[in-house]
Amino acid sequence: MAGVDVLAGALSGANAAYVADLYARWAADPGSVDASFIPLFEALDDEGRAAIADVAGASWGSHASLIGSDPAPAVSPVSGAAQPGGVPGGVSLAVAHAAADDSLRALAMVRAYRVRGHLEARLDPLGLQVPKPHPELDPASYGFGPADCDRPVYIGRALADLLERDTATINEIVAALRETYCGPVGIEFTHIQDPEQKDWLQARVEGAPWRNWATRDEKRTILSQLTEAEGFEAFCQKRYVGTKRFGLEGGEVTIPALHAIIARAAGAGVREVAIGMPHRGRLNTLVNVVRKPYTAIFSEFGGASFKPDDVQGSGDVKYHLGTSTDVELAGHSVHISLQPNPSHLEAVDPVVVGKVRARQDMTDDSATRRAVMGILMHGDAAFAGQGLVYEVLAMSQLIGYRTGGTIHVVVNNQIGFTTVSAHAYSGLYCTDVAKSVQAPILHVNGDEPEAVVYCAQLAADYRQRFGADVVLDIVCYRRHGHNESDEPAFTQPTMYKAIRARPTTRTLYAERLAREGVVSEAQAKEGWDGFQSQLGEAFDAAKSYRPNKADWLEGRWSGLRAATDCDDAPVTSVALDTLRHVGTALATVPKNFAINPKIARQLEAKAEMFESGQGIDWATGEALAFGTLLIEGHRVRLSGEDVQRGTFSHRHAVLIDQSNQNEYVPLNNIDDRQARIEVYNSLLSEFGVLGFEYGYSLADPQSLVLWEGQFGDFANGAQVIIDQFIASGETKWLRMSGLVLLLPHGYEGQGPEHSSARLERFLQLCAENNMVVANFTTPANYFHALRRQLKREYRKPLVIMTPKSLLRHKLAVSSLDEMGPGSFFQPVIGEIDAIAEAERVRRVVICSGKVYYDLLAARRDKGIDDVAILRLEQIYPFDAGALGAALRSYVNAEIVWCQEEPENMGAWSFVDRRIEAVLGAIGHGHARPVYAGRKAAASPATGLAKTHAAEQTALVAEALGLVS
C-alpha cells in the first residue's frame, strides 16, 4: 500500500481524490495514465485498493464534487503529452511526482535501517569495536542533502511505532531509526520469511522501548540480581585465589537476563525450564538462578563430594555439575534444571532439547509444546565454531524433534580462549548460523542491563508466541582470562587494558540509578555488604556441610535403584496369545489401504510365521518386543536415518499408502489401551540426534528409546556423546540412561566404511557395569534384550552390533516359543548341533555375531563333528559364570576365539584375558584361548570383494582347524 500512501499523503485531500481517479482510469485502461504511476498502482494490495475506495467515496466515478470542478489536462513530465484529468487545486503533476519521490526514497531508507541498522549499533561495552558507517544508512545515499533534511516528508503508517504522525523531516526520521536500530540493541529479523513474525518483532522494537520500560522496582530488582552475580564472583575470587571456576566476570548481566527469560516464560504458561550451558558462569547460574545452596558450592570448593557418601561414582569438577529446583514465579511453581555438561562445550545442546521433548511428551504438552522450555547458553566462539550448534538448530522445526522453540543465550566474550573473532568465524557475527532457521537475533550491549533484560523478555515472548528458536547475543567481555589463573595480556594487551580501566557492569548501573534517584549510593553499598555477609555465613557453614540425599531417583525415576551388578534376570517372556495378538496387528492393514505389493508379500510371510510359530526373523522379533512393551504401557521411540523402512528395507514400521502417501503404523493399532510408538526418520546427523535421544532417555525411564545408525560406523560422528555422556554419565553425574544404540555391523565385503561399528571402542569404555555391549545371533535374544531394558529395576545403555546379512538369513530365525513362557535372555548360547561327545571335541570356537553362521555353514559342509561352537551374545558385562558352564564339559578341547574384525579391533583384546580367567577358574587344561581372524590392520576392512572373500574363507578355516 506504499504507493497510495505516498501519493495520497503528498497532496491535499482533493489531490488524494485525484489519485483515486487516476487509479480508476488505470484500472480500466493502463495506457490512459502517465507511465510513471504504473509501478505504484501495480504494487497495490487489497488494503491499498480499499484505501483508494475510501478516498473516492467507495466509487470509481467522477470526483468533481470533491475537487470543485473538472481539472484541466496536465502535461506529463515524462512524455510531454497531455494527460486526461489535470492536477486539482492547480498543483502540477511535477510537484506530485517530487513529493512521491521524496516519500519513496525516505521509505527505502527506513527499510535499510531495518535491514542494516544493527551494523552501526553500539554493542561493544569496551568501545574497541567501533562500527563503520554504512552507506545505506546515510540519507545522502537516497538523495537527501543537508538542505533537504528539515523538509517534511510523508511516510504514512510506515513508522507508526516510531512516530505518532504520518509526516516528519528526514532528520526526525533518522533520529528515530538510529535510536531503535543503532543504539545498544542491534536486531536482525528481516531474514525471516513469515510476515507475522517479522511485523511482530518490528512493532516490539521500534521506538527503542528498552529505554523506558522498567519501573523503579524493576530497576532495583535488576541491581539486586547484578549484586548477586558480581558479589558471588568477587567473594570466590577472594576466598579461592587461583582456583579455576570459569567465572562470569564481565558477563554478569547474564544472570538478570536468565531471570527475565524464566519469569516471563512462567507468566506465559511455562512450568519447566531445562538449561544447558558450558562451564563459564555455571557456578553463578547454579546458585543465583537454579538456587543451589551457596553452602553446597563452597563445600565443593573445599573438596567435598557433590553427592551423599553412600552413592557410588567418580564425580566431576564442580563447573561441570548440574542441579534442579522448584521456584515460585508468576503464581506458579516452575521446575528449573541445569544439565551437567563436559568440557565439550556445545555437546549438551541436543541433550537438553531431547530432555525437553521427553518432558513435553510425558506431560501432555505435545500439542502446543509451550509448557516445557529449553534455554541453551553458548560462548561466542563455540556457537560459531561447533557444527553441533547447526545440527540442533536444524532439528528445531522437524516433526520428530521440535520442542516449541529454544532460547539461545550467547555470552559473547568477543574472544575464544585466546582467539579473537577475526580468526574464529568467517561471518559478521558469531550468531550468523542461526539465520539458517530464520531465528531472530537480538544483539545487545552487556553494559546496558535494562536493554538486556528487555531483549530477554522479548525472546521469551517470541518463543511462546511463535514456537520457534530465538537468539539473544549479549556482547560483553571476560574480566579475567580463559580461567582465573590465566594471563590474557599475553595475547590481547589492548583488550585487557580497556577491561582493567572499565568499572563493572553493576558499578555503572548503580551509578546510573543513583543519578536517577532510584537507589542511593549508600543503599547500593548496603545491598552489596549485606550480600557479602550472607556469603560469609554460607562459607562458614560449608565446613560442616554434607549432602543428605541424591535426587537422581526421584520423580519419574522413583521405584528404580542403583545397580550394583548387571547379572539379574528379570522376566522378559510373554504369553503366546499376546505374541500372536501383536503378530495379527503386524500382518494387517486397513481396508482400502494401497500397500506396496512387495510389502504385501512380506506381511503374508509374517502371518505364516505366527500361524506356524516358526521362522521369526530379526525385524519381527524386534516388532514383537516393541509391541508387547506398548501393550504393557511403555512408549517406544526409535529415530535415526531412514529407520521407518530400515536401511536394509527390513523393518517397515511405517507403511505408506501407494496412492496418497498416507501413513499407517501397525504397532499403533494393536490395542485400544496401548501406549504409542514413534518412529522418526532423522535428519542426516549422528552427533545431534544421538545426543537428543540420550537426553530423551534421561527424562523418561519408562519409555524404550532407541537410536539406529544407518551403518554402525556412523557412530563415529557421535563419539563425544558416547564417550562423555552414555559411557560415563552415570558415574560422573548420577544420571542413568536406558538408551539403546542399534549399530549395523558385520563383514560382507562392503568395504572399510560399512563393515565395522567399532566394537572395540565401546568395549574399551566398559567398566563398573556402566553399559551393556552385545552382538546377538538370534531374534529371540534381541527380543529379550530389548524387553530387559525396561524390566530391570535400573537403567543401563545397551549397545547392539545389529546384523545386515542376517536380517534375511534362513538360519538367523527364532521360534515363538523362544519368546514365550519359560524363555529368557541367554548371554552365552551353547552348541546346537548333534556333534561328538564332549570328551571327543578337540576344539571349541567362541565367537559372537554374524561370523557364527559362517562357521556353522562351513562345519556342516565339511562334516566336522569334533569342533564345538559357542556364541558369546553379551560381551559386556562379561558373564564368566555362563561361559564357564558352557566350557566345563569340553575338558580336552583347545579354546579358540574367532572374529571377523582385524586382530587389533573387535572383541579379541577385551575377551582374551577374561576367557583365560574363566579357563583357570574351571581348571581347564588349556590356559589361554587362541586367536583366529584377520591380521592387525589400519583399515577396518578391505574394499576388494575377492580379497574379502579370501580372508573370510581363511579365518573360518583357521578357526575350525582346517589349516595347519
From TrEMBL:
<dbReference type="Pfam" id="PF02779">
    <property type="entry name" value="Transket_pyr"/>
</dbReference>
<dbReference type="InterPro" id="IPR042179">
    <property type="entry name" value="KGD_C_sf"/>
</dbReference>
<dbReference type="GO" id="GO:0030976">
    <property type="term" value="F:thiamine pyrophosphate binding"/>
</dbReference>
<feature type="domain" description="Transketolase-like pyrimidine-binding">
    <location>
        <begin position="616"/>
        <end position="809"/>
    </location>
</feature>
<dbReference type="Pfam" id="PF00676">
    <property type="entry name" value="E1_dh"/>
</dbReference>
<dbReference type="GO" id="GO:0004591">
    <property type="term" value="F:oxoglutarate dehydrogenase (succinyl-transferring) activity"/>
</dbReference>
<protein>
    <recommendedName>
        <fullName>2-oxoglutarate dehydrogenase E1 component</fullName>
        <ecNumber>1.2.4.2</ecNumber>
    </recommendedName>
</protein>
<dbReference type="InterPro" id="IPR011603">
    <property type="entry name" value="2oxoglutarate_DH_E1"/>
</dbReference>
<dbReference type="InterPro" id="IPR001017">
    <property type="entry name" value="DH_E1"/>
</dbReference>
<keyword id="KW-0560">Oxidoreductase</keyword>
<dbReference type="GO" id="GO:0006096">
    <property type="term" value="P:glycolytic process"/>
</dbReference>
<dbReference type="GO" id="GO:0005829">
    <property type="term" value="C:cytosol"/>
</dbReference>
<comment type="similarity">
    <text>Belongs to the alpha-ketoglutarate dehydrogenase family.</text>
</comment>
<dbReference type="InterPro" id="IPR005475">
    <property type="entry name" value="Transketolase-like_Pyr-bd"/>
</dbReference>
<keyword id="KW-0786">Thiamine pyrophosphate</keyword>
<dbReference type="Pfam" id="PF16870">
    <property type="entry name" value="OxoGdeHyase_C"/>
</dbReference>
<dbReference type="Pfam" id="PF16078">
    <property type="entry name" value="2-oxogl_dehyd_N"/>
</dbReference>
<comment type="subunit">
    <text>Homodimer. Part of the 2-oxoglutarate dehydrogenase (OGDH) complex composed of E1 (2-oxoglutarate dehydrogenase), E2 (dihydrolipoamide succinyltransferase) and E3 (dihydrolipoamide dehydrogenase); the complex contains multiple copies of the three enzymatic components (E1, E2 and E3).</text>
</comment>
<dbReference type="InterPro" id="IPR032106">
    <property type="entry name" value="2-oxogl_dehyd_N"/>
</dbReference>
<keyword id="KW-0324">Glycolysis</keyword>
<comment type="function">
    <text>E1 component of the 2-oxoglutarate dehydrogenase (OGDH) complex which catalyzes the decarboxylation of 2-oxoglutarate, the first step in the conversion of 2-oxoglutarate to succinyl-CoA and CO(2).</text>
</comment>
<dbReference type="GO" id="GO:0006099">
    <property type="term" value="P:tricarboxylic acid cycle"/>
</dbReference>
<dbReference type="InterPro" id="IPR031717">
    <property type="entry name" value="ODO-1/KGD_C"/>
</dbReference>
<dbReference type="InterPro" id="IPR029061">
    <property type="entry name" value="THDP-binding"/>
</dbReference>
<dbReference type="GO" id="GO:0045252">
    <property type="term" value="C:oxoglutarate dehydrogenase complex"/>
</dbReference>
